[in-house]
Design a protein that fits this description.
This protein has 103 residues and is α+β, with helices and mostly antiparallel strands. Helices cover 33% and strands 24% of the residues. It contains 3 helices and 4 strands, in the order βαββααβ. The chain has a 4-stranded antiparallel β-sheet. Helix 2 crosses helix 3.
Length: 103
């Protein structure tokens, strides 16, 4: 499995961010080919001090190639272009293969 994580710093208008994100952006995300699952939260907390991020998003793909194909698809390009409509604080996007842990 491969994950894409997007971290959102505090936007200029948190209410607009929440509304636009849920009602406009996430429906675009859901149309991306190869997307297995996605999750998000506006309730980001830090273990100490103030949280550095306002919201977090994670998407799951079968592998890095599936993620790349999804992001390069017309739907993926539309998702990327839409970010400027709500993320006035910018974004930090990272991706990584997921490894199972053992005890």
């Amino acid at each position: 499995m491969h994950k894409l994580m997007v971290l959102y710093p505090e936007p200029a208008d948190p209410d607009h961010f929440r509304d636009y994100y849920v009602n406009t952006h996430l429906p675009l995300v859901a149309r991306m080919p190869g997307l297995l699952a996605y999750r998000y939260s506006f309730e980001v907390a830090a273990t100490q001090g103030q949280p550095p991020y306002f919201a977090v998003f994670e998407a799951e793909f079968a592998d890095a190639a599936a993620m790349t194909a999804a992001r390069e698809s017309p739907q993926g390009r539309q998702v990327t272009a839409d970010v400027a409509n709500y993320a006035t604080g910018g974004v930090v996007a990272i991706h990584y293969p997921v490894r199972d842990g053992t005890r």
